Amino acid sequence: PILYSYFRSSCSWRVRIALALKGISYDLVPVNLLKDGGQQFSAEFKAVNPMQQVPALKIDGITLSQSLAIIHYLEDTRPNPRLLPQDPKKRAQVRMIADHIVSGIQPLQNLSVLRQMGEKKMEWAQNCIASGFQALEQILQHTAGRYSVGDEVSMADLCLVPQVSNAERFRVDMGPYPTITRINKALLELEAFKVSHPSQQPDTPAELRA
């Protein structure tokens, strides 16, 4: 497998966690979203992903983009350890939380949107994340065990950790979100989350390495 990734991309990080949890080795091709006006806009990368976004994964003779589509494919083809619970209600809760983050929070504060916001980008990102986290905190109070849904790591957790990292980068006050904070801390203790962390990637700048 070949993963096209950017160290700081939360969407790429979700996929790196899934690959690590499932023990899938891969070659990494860095795509720097800032360098050269954004390497994702190159003709070479557009041939890989016409949406000109990371991540993209070449695996089993196909090329997939969109982080959840990639993770669902890995789940379908390499089911252990599973990232979706077998219980239909818990499975729906996992998908709900993942979609809440992937559709309702992250796109509003991603690079392409922030570029449009100019000087207001920090305030915009903080507001988008805070309003999303207010809802997420309430949801997790009903679904969480050790992790987002019960005591097993799920697709919801793969979305949660990168989004908390974004919140910290945009200096969001995490005080009002104790459940999110507790789950995030527990997940960051797991090896798959450590090795996939932005501070550990081949394309991480020296000053940001752990």
Automatic annotation (TrEMBL):
Q: Which organism is it from?
A: Aptenodytes patagonicus (King penguin)
Q: Name one Pfam family in it.
A: GST_N_2
Q: Keyword Cytoplasm, does the record have it?
A: yes
Reactions the enzyme catalyzes: 4-maleylacetoacetate = 4-fumarylacetoacetate; RX + glutathione = an S-substituted glutathione + a halide anion + H(+)
Ranges of residues in domain GST N-terminal: 1-82
Q: Which SUPFAM superfamilies match?
A: GST C-terminal domain-like, Thioredoxin-like
Cofactor names from the entry are: glutathione
Q: Under what name is this protein listed?
A: Maleylacetoacetate isomerase
Q: Which CDD domains match?
A: GST_C_Zeta, GST_N_Zeta
A Gene Ontology biological process in which this protein takes part is: L-tyrosine catabolic process
Family annotation (NCBIfam families): maiA
The gene it comes from is: Gstz1
Q: Which keywords annotate this record?
A: Cytoplasm, Isomerase, Phenylalanine catabolism, Transferase, Tyrosine catabolism
State the EC number(s): 2.5.1.18, 5.2.1.2
Family stated for the protein in its record: Belongs to the GST superfamily. Zeta family.
Its ancestry begins with: Eukaryota, Metazoa, Chordata, Craniata, Vertebrata
